[in-house]
Specification:
Protein name: Enoyl-CoA hydratase/isomerase family protein
Helix content: 40-55%
Radius of gyration: 19 Å
Organism: Kribbella hippodromi
Shape: globular
Largest sheet: 6 strands, mixed
Number of helices: 9
Family: Belongs to the enoyl-CoA hydratase/isomerase family.
Structural class: alpha/beta
Number of strands: 9
Order of helices and strands: EEHEHEEHEEHHEHEHHH
InterPro entries: ClpP/crotonase-like_dom_sf, Ech1-like, Enoyl-CoA_hyd/isom_CS, Enoyl-CoA_hydra/iso
Length: 257
Amino acid sequence: MTDLGLRFTVDGPVARVVLDRPEVRNAQTPAMWSALAEFGTALPAEVRVVIVSGEGPSFSAGLDRRLIMGENDLGQEPLLTLGAKPTDEVLELIATFQSGFSWLRRPEIVSIAAVQGHAVGAGFQLALACDLRVVTPDARFSMREPALGLVPDLGGTKPLVELIGYSRALEICTTSRWVEAAEAKELGLANIVVPADELDATVKDLSDALLGPLPGAIRETKALLLGAADRTYQDQLRAEREAQERRLKELLAALNG
């Protein structure tokens, strides 16, 4: 996938996704989103942690500006031409784009974004698609879509509201302002801020820690937390009971097997 600007690797329980277009600050294209979706679909069952990072000094500058309107040298359709298509076709295309991001929230994996430099628009949404974000002091987030007359449509709005609340999410999106690393940590967008030369080691330590518990326990716990905001307290209690019952049965079966 290097010709698309992506590198994928799988090493046992750890998979890596590297955006590899450093010459354009890892700007993204719809072809990259399709490749991301295919990788997620084909992910081996033994993978438990997915690490997403960018080659070079930036995580991702968002959608490649050459694809917003007019002719381009990338061989891909400009985004604004979608407005001339039938509604059903547009909705289907956007759903395809979204699938490149949404698989990172699946309960059976924990995803980590290693963010340095710019995380703009689609880059911000890719970081938000991940469960955890480890960032460097120079990391800068911005939701640029409204400034271009568009909306964030790659799945980033829900986790953003879940992380920082409606009011602050609205302010950040509608002003398209920069959120620097220190503020990202304060708001809860970043789990930890580390020096650039410690980014890889910190992500590895976090990945190793996530691989410690049994896979089923992590899967069930993530599913409980993902659904918590949409359940009543009593429904959440029931979901916890049901999850624990499944774990007890799986553990007992493993001991007797």
